[in-house]
Amino acid sequence: MARPLRIEYEGAFYHVLSRGNERKEIFWDDKDRSLFTEILGEMSLRFSVDVFAYVLMDNHYHLLLRTNRPNISKSIQWLGVAYTRRFNVKHHRNGHLFQGRFKSFLVENEKYLTCPFLLYPKEMVQDYSREEKRVWEDFRHGLFFGSQEYCKKVKSKYMGDKEPDVEVPQKRFFLREEDLNTVLGRAAAAMECDISALINPRRINGQEKDKRDILIYLLWNTGLYRNNEIAKIFNLSYSSVSKQVSNIKLKLGKESHIKKIFSKANSLFKM
User: Fold this and answer.
1) What is the rounded CA–CA span in Å between residue 268 and residue 271?
2) For position 248, which CATH number holds?
3) What span, in angstroms and rounded, lies between the C-alpha atoms of 119 and 113?
4) Would you say the pTM of this structure is higher than 0.85?
């Protein structure tokens, strides 16, 4: 059976739910909750997602979000992977932490901010099994929370037989691939360097390395590219991407000349 369609578009509101594998705890203590909110903040900045509310129970969480880019799937997938990795390191464990795909429900507008889920979170989420059944029954078509008019509008635009809108993830995938070389070339030109020199597999040092790492960070920060995709572009290993991103973030906070170079590239790096 095909997986349910995940509808994504700019400015969309979502109620997101995810629980632990085999209904086991995903937060063992308050330090785990602090870790999750820290990563949630990183996700918000990296993927341009507004976080309005969250509820963190022992074995599941709820989020109320607005995406400023059509990227709910990549955002929550990154959140889950990042938290699982750090949780496993902290607790000396391996394997999956979350059960299957996260659930997301489209919300019509900000009026949902006043719903009982936000006003009385403890009472609403104590029993996940009972709540999950109620949520699936109450949310129209299993995908939306809103008026009939809103449901019809979204279904017509994103679930019809016509040509997909550019906001549909599959269409955007091809658009981003087509534009990547142009984007990189424009950013490299802004930094007054040759892009071919920066993607050469040979070892580079000094300012060339800083410029390459800035491009890596810019791609990473869009949230559109996975680490292995970025690694392939620059002829690096998967782990090197995370390392270079961390290094350039530190330099951006300390070195003024790096900030200046970054600003030149960032001003032209339009996705």
Assistant:
1) 9
2) 1.10.1750.10
3) 9
4) no
